[in-house]
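## retry 2 of 3
previous attempt timed out at serialization; input unchanged, resubmitting
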Amino acid sequence: MTKAYLMNSLIEKMQSPDQDHRYMGLTDLMSEIRQDSANFYGDEQMEYKILQHVLKLVEDRISEVKNQAVKCLGVLIKIVRESQMEHIIGKLIDFSGSKDEELRDIAGLALKTITAELPQNSSLAPKACSNLTPKLLNQIQNPATPPETLIETLSILSILITRFPAQLSNPDLSPQPVPVLIPLLGHSRPAVRKRAILTLAQFLPAAQQGLFDELIKTTVLPGLPNEAGASLEQQRTTVQLVAAIARHSPGRIAGALDVIIPGVLTAANREDDELREFALQALEVFVLRCPGEVSPFLGKIVQTGTKLIKHDPNYAGGDDEEDEEMADADADDEDEDDDLDYSDDEDTSYKIRRSATKLLAALIETRPEMLTSLYRDVSPVLIQRFGDREETVRLEVWATYGALLSQTKVYGGILQDPSFVDSPGVGGKRKRTISGTDGMDVEVPESPAVLLKSQVPSLAKALFSQLRGAKTPPAILQAGFNLLHQLIVVSPGSLSAHVDSIALTAQAVLKQSPTTSSTILHTSCLSFLSVFFTTHAPQSFSNVLPELTPALLKSLSERHPRVVADSFRAFSALLNALRPVQSAEWVERVYDSAVLRLRSADTDAEVRSCAEACMGDLWVCATDVVRTKDGHEWDAMCRTTGRMDGAVKVVTRVARDVDVGDVWINGSVEWLLGVLRKAGKVGKSDAFTYLDVLLRKYQGSIPTDLVPSVVDQLKSYISTNDIALLSHALVILALLLDLAPQLTYPAVESEYLKDVYVIAHSPLLAGSSLDALLAFFASLVRADTEIATHVIPNLTLPLKKEKMADASYANVAKCIGTVVRCHPSLAAGTIAEFSKSLKGPKANNAQVVLNLLVLGEVGRIIDFAPQKDLFYSAVELLGSMDEEVRSAAAFATGNIAIGNLHLFLPAIVKLVRTDKEKRLLALHALKEVVSNCPLGQLESLAETIWVPLFQDSANSEESTRNVAAACLGKLTTTNPSRYLPQLQARIHDEDPAARATVIAAIRYTFADSQHSYNELLSALVPDFLSAMVDDDLTVRRLAISALNSAARHKPQLIRDQLNVLLLNLYKETHVRPELIRTVQMGPWTHRVDDGLEARKAAYETMYTLLDTCLSKLDLHEFLGRVVVGLSDDSDEVKVLAHMMLFRLSGVAPTALAQRLDEITPHLEKTMKGPAVTKDTVKQDLERTAELQRSTLRAVAALHKCTPSGVSARFDGFVEEIQRGQWGPEFKELNSRP
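## retry succeeded, writing output
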């Protein structure tokens, strides 16, 4: 079929008098184009003819045909010629100005469709924008344009500026959009004004500065309510306009806010409900989008919000009575009947109260530094409004109080400085007095937690009065339980005085069977009860259990899985709270319900998991009750198919906490061995942990038939294929060797030792796996001391026969050291054996390395005074030509010295003082002494080492200084009062190398876990960290690392100084052009940033502070530096910024949401990645993919914490990711909790 024939047949259909044929003709045309766009191309006259028929069908009398024609234009606009595109746009513009209302509507829909469908990256986009935008603007300027058309035109312009900001911000565009849109602010139709405000605000970010300034000067400022000549309509429009501008261009309007905000505050106090609502909405936007500029006005904003949240002119009660009367309003049936007659058509004051509530919520969510003041001035007002007559306002108030509790949970644990802003109500310092032990009043600062606790009685009274009514809607009950849940998480035990109200409300909910619509209410109630039982003393709720437990038992028998699962969780919490539980009817019924669910093959997975956990709680907390049962619960729980991880955890807990007897343990071990055979990697790890617990619980000896079956089971894990499971297996073998040596040793010797010797050579073993290997050898030697004489040769023989390039000599030496430690009589022979080849021409370097490492391990526990020549031989080898030999010699020298410090330490100190060539290696030896020597011995010798460590630091390399600093830091902890002042005295040394050594040393001191000298160290912190402004780049970098160490290990030392430290820290996050240099490497030129390491250290410190000092951070300033990090040239800095976004999404989602428009472009650029060229190598692609995955994690976190619609660009970015190659991975990230 030729193209011409195909197109003619479609035209024939579109001309048909039958509406179905016309509809199908359009559908077929779209289908053909989507299959192959070339079907449309060919004869230009034919293309034009098709377009004419499609445009003609836009005017069709049948709505379905018109709508299909619009969709068809959306497909065609992507592929038509430029002249044809102009024709389509011109025709639709003509239609939109028609007097036919239906044609105007369909033309507007068509224009919206083609602007939304136009590809952003296509070559047609600039041409389409340049053709369409002037026509739309001219249409707006035309006085004859109907208001409905104006609204549609403005909507189309909004789509264009959102999708094509670069094209529509062209200064050559004529006419310019901003001057065209401004006159519409005075249009007689409110709908036109509202739409014009939004469109104008969207154009302003890209508008020329002169046009923006002119708008502020001639339109905004004269229209503010504090200007005498402004009409009421003009004031409303102006207030809405400044809110829209602040939402889209916060940086531009920030400079004028000192004039604008007073005008908006004035508007909020005018006697006009609509103006008040707009003013409150504008203030909310200022708080969210312009945090710095709004700070001087926060006091007045809080006063305005707390005043207007009470605005209820139709409510008869006075302010003094409001708290009591409103709290009880809905509890009275007569009042409920009155509320049913109340209509929004009669009174719209609720909109003002709702806007005021949202304003206060914005303050709460973005101003954690004001928490104390908010609890004084805002919290009582919110509690008063818990009983608002309008349900939507009531729920908004509760949600706002929930936000206050959430902020308290994150930021309220630290006593805060209550001084803040200009209002006495917000910024005045207040203190409460408590009675001291001497009978005098002692003033203490008030913290948010203390203030919350004092307000709980009034909060609980107001809230329960809203929940106890028989006609209370499910949405209100659910919101109430959620708020109570948040309250007791933040303030445990605070509802002890309100147990009766809790029981009555919970009973009322749980006695009704859950429906599809009320299931969430039931789960909210049950979740609250679980936390309530966990956070309150049993004596506070024991008297209501006879009424409450029947309702909970009823929930156990419901059909909905979520309800049943949460019921089991509630009983688990109750059992743990009442532990130990004596005989009670409800305990037996819970047991029966759990067994019933566990026996059923069709039990939901979540219900089964909760039933298993509850059964474990029954065994641990009500042992006497469940012992009387027949034990069928274990048959039902310990299955041999399906998921068994829950059962493994339960049996582990029971074995650990309950005296179960050897018979039960035998059965459990047998079942567990089956789990090990069938489980996946994670399941095997849990099973090994459980096996360890079981074996230790045997009261008598381990059964003789058990050991062989366990040992045989472990055989497959003794390999380096899976290091984690190898560690578990070695731990179990070591345990069996300790508990049943006679039964275990023969099997281990015959089946395992050969493989373990091979594993000991592997460099893959480190950390916990190496510890497990050493524990195995220790247990092996304790099980049979005779084997010790064979272990050492078997460990070293393969290394002597042939050089193993990938063998870990250090691991072998540690194993030998462990054997000697457990069998000291082998020490002399081991020393003699491994000292033979230290000298002589036949000794190869690998053997020398092994010998030195072994002598070092042994020397740590044996005095080498009788063989002191070995020490000096090791010292001589510090001058070896082989680097590995030198390193091993330093290890041996330091560790041998530990065995006799008075004899050997002076020789090492002399090397540090006098031998420049061996100084670094001698320092490494000294570091071994400092790191491994007992603290008591080290303290007595610290003075001997202290001075040499500073010697010649100016002429030393950085690596040498770092080793010396590590020693100094450790020595400082032996006598802080002596050595900290000495470090402080050198902090201002003229030599930058000496200053660098001091700062590096204090970094190690911060990392020490002791807290005895924190008070002394705290006084010196400002002096030490003043090096962050040092002239020397290395000193600054080390000072930032020291701050990072302090923030991670001793955050309490720096919290009070953070206001100064953060300023210096943020300075180091800036890219400094003067530190960037160009290096020529052959034909290539590279840019080297000498400030990168300091910048990375600064961002790493920011990440740490976010974890340990969150309450002391100004989030807005902090976020500003994070956003800058997203565009850094360094991938490492970008990854750190992504990690901070991920963490901020959990603790400051509201503040983060306001910066999405700034954040999104940087994330888009990173996800796009650099262009792939012929010079791109595999490593570049892998590095790019890893950075993109880091970005993806940040985007997923932002997507989950921010509601849709906050940022159109971010929403579009997310949709693009979901459609692209990263879509599946993004979906998986979003599904994670």
